[in-house]
């Protein structure tokens, strides 16, 4: 800037002195600059050497070769100053009148060159009119730095702000020099006090001179003269405002763009010859000639960074395709936040894609803390935003390119839309680094966006997010209307069109091929007829199948009925004196009674079959037993057994109501016994409410013995039960004994004493003699009943676990223990409390006789019954007499004496208080 002051006063001398001093200081600074800036033995600039340099002024940032302070800039052309007296601070070239208005971004790469060497600048100057009425001022090219390429900038006009002055353009030839080119006035003598008016400059407080096409600002010197208006009273306005004694000069169109360059050499060839001053010091940098003398540096293809410092160019490795955090928030209000963007650490691919959540209530997402994001699109790589101008008045929406590495390029207005890229690399270079390659989804492809970088998109036939694994999914193009003239076949990533077969036509509504319609009414009639015909055929088929199945079932039931000798059994049962009590049941009756043999109706299952609870049509509750499969040779025995049991009418034997012969295995219908078995009560948990007194136990044992005696001798043919045990002695509603389960029973003619058969029974109750010889006789049931008596005395199961954890046989344990110690030490505590010594000894002796190994030495069931009956009767007499039980005081086991036989018929004779007699009396004293 050159000032020409024509007022001859002391102020002129002072300004000249200051100008000379500034020139001397500048020259001294240039001489004292480090060798790295003078080109002689310089130190190559690097991150380390520039670590302490200032890189910002207010909200403007800059990079080397520009800098503030010694050693922080390349040459005086790149020296900057920071005016911190204004708000915000201003970044200026060293001449003090050229202001840099936007950040200087040096980051560049070869394939994206062209915009990184531009500068947004404005210039301004101030002229003092204090104590002067005329001042001259000129504008010359040297006011700008040598590093600016002036071919990219033309000055179209200047703006002059102040009060009450005229401006004359002295070296303008086309207009009368005596007429002012512009005039600025302040109405009523008041100052505007505005340096840069925002309204149109119409002569109030400022005026403008438009150069038009008459002159290029850099082709010659432009001279102006400022004259204070004659009517202005300087004394009256001396202290009113700075606008009265100063004129502010700015470029009329605010901001201009210029290209900067390295101007110490004319081109790259000359620059490389002088390596001491060569600016492209990065080992991955190259040189590019400027449009006018000079050159610029940029990073090689595939690298990005600052080529003016050592190791400044490096591959763009800032993108991380893997999301490190799980469960990232991807929806913020009505804004979708897809990867690579994110709101938390580990949720975004690079720091430039971080979005700050500032207000959840209003769904405010900020990019770089000032740009309000409204939409993010991954399919076309765009981002929409707006700027709150009240909070960020210095932000220019129209010129915004967010991101320090220019990952964003503006593509739309008035809703500002910027296109973003994953990294500053071409697709070719990005694919070389597989760990940092952004397009990781199957079905994705890479697109190079010049001059910025690359982005990803789903290939044709896919849609979704190409930046995540399996983010691109196949599009079913066939769902789109009218995509094919006829049939459409969707495939992965594409589709094919298929023509309808001959004599068919395409139905666009149902999207299928249908037969060609010749007559709608005829088609309806044919369709209804065919439909009714098919329905009739189906119903007829169902009916015939059911009839066929019913016929098969009837034939099968008839076959089973004949196989199971149903006619014979029917005649036997009908010959009964009370035929109404026994009958041959049909399968339908029993299926109805058991709800088609519902598993919920199962009462129990054992070795001989499954027992169901049923309710007959006459409301009788019965137990229906479904035995296991019997052999063909056993059918006759089964018939005899059913025939005999149907005629048995003993109060202590479960009554057989009849059977069903229409199944492969005949079903037996018994009377239902509600109170379970003797086993379940005597071996139940002590806390169980069910309880049998000692007298009840003897009564039940007496009733069971009487039933077995009846089976052995009272029937026309002897019946050997073969499975006598406490669980087969059932208890009805009055706790009366009912012997049950004749599945293992065998019929023996009266003239036979035994039968040889397969071994069958329950372990623990099984007669050892029968087990070894296979000969079944009535004494086998006596042995099993003896085990039941021992259960009543000891209240232990037939096979039990002793204190040492070993399994013990109850009968063996009993026979061994009564020889080793008194009986009172082995019987149950309940028995000790309720039974007398004589009763315990009698039952123990009877059980011992029943458990003898030789069957001939065991008593008959009649003898057992009489002994129990006598003992039970004696207990009843004592209870009626004393109304209390006599406890066992000093139990002693009577000596065993040899049995004596006395033939007294059926009359029982009491020989002594400790003796009794039967049909064959065993006298035990």
From TrEMBL:
Membrane topology: Single-pass type I membrane protein
A Pfam family matched in the record: Pkinase
SUPFAM superfamilies given in the database record: Growth factor receptor domain, Protein kinase-like (PK-like)
Presence of keyword Chaperone: no
UniProt subcellular location: Membrane
Record InterPro entries: EGF, EGF-like_Ca-bd_dom, EGF_Ca-bd_CS, Growth_fac_rcpt_cys_sf, Kinase-like_dom_sf, NOTCH1_EGF-like, Prot_kinase_dom, Protein_kinase_ATP_BS
Domain of life: Eukaryota
Transmembrane portions of the chain: 520-545
Protein name: Protein kinase domain-containing protein
Species: Oryza barthii
Organismal lineage: Eukaryota, Viridiplantae, Streptophyta, Embryophyta, Tracheophyta
